[in-house]
Amino acid sequence: MQKNENLVKAINRNVRCSARKINLLLKNIRGKKADIVIRDLSFARQRVAHDIKKTVQSAIANAENNNQYDIDNLYIKEAYVGKSLVLKRFRARAKGRASGIKKPFSNLTIILSEGTTKKEESYGTKS
User: What is the per-residue pLDDT across 31-46, written as a single tens digit (0 to 9) for each?
Assistant: First the structure.
């Protein structure tokens, strides 16, 4: 099995949002070209879209500066999120009770690849 060397990674640790909410946005960007992803995230209504956009821009900068890849040929190969630490707080309730509040953090990973996307390849191969 041959290892693919044209991968570029950017990791954003301790993003102050739950993994479920981040994953909703990551589903929309997987497999798309990098410039289209930045455009889509710029107009997304969710607060965490700004953090995802910064991570994608960091991966693009890594590809350009460290590996001399062409920005126009980059696409999102993988985008995934994992759980990180959880801040535990409490809220006072009636009759002297307390209820817990969990404030989760997440680790966001974006992996870019150079070349054409899978969708573009499948369109071009039909003969």
Answer: 999 999 999 999 999 9
Domain ranges of the chain: 7-115
- Distance from C-alpha of 31 to C-alpha of 38, rounded to nearest angstrom: 13
Selection from 108, 94, 96, 8 nearest residue 55 by Cα = 108
- End-to-end CA gap in the chain: 29
Beta bridge partners of 91: 99
Determine if the pTM surpasses 0.85: no
CA-to-CA distance for 53 and 39, rounded, in angstroms?
Answer: 9
Domain 7-115 has CATH 3.40.50.2300: no
Q: Among 39, 5, 8, which Cα is nearest to 109's? A: 8
| Crossing angle of helices 49-67 and 19-29, rounded to 10° | 60
